[in-house]
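Dear colleagues,

For the upcoming journal club I promised to circulate an example of a predicted protein-ligand complex. I picked one with magnesium ion because it came up in last month's discussion. The inputs are reproduced below in full, followed by the predicted structure.
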Amino acid sequence: MEFHELLTFIELEENRIKNYFDSYSDTEKQILGQTVKLTEELGELCNEILAHNSLQRKQKLEIHNKENLPEEFADVIITALILAKTLDVDIIKALEKKIEKVNKRYE
Ligand SMILES: [Mg+2]
């Protein structure tokens, strides 16, 4: 494959994707955005966990602020709760059910 063929394919695929997403409702677009945001926040949390435990390269550790870890946990939780609300998930009920399920594993 030549590079120009790849670029032609990318342009074609971009248009296909654009047409596909144009048919989404505002709510569906909001869900997509929130889902991407959750992934972003999860990545930031993972980064902070690695840095907090000195599991990154020296250059990154030199600029790391240990105060960021709790904030990144909060970001993930808040973003997940917003997404759950948008999807009409009863998070209290879901947590109760999950905790009960986990507890039963140890009975
Ligand atoms: Mg964050």
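Two points we might discuss: The two ends are 59 Å apart (CA to CA). The chain has one domain: 26-105.

See you all on Thursday,
B. R.
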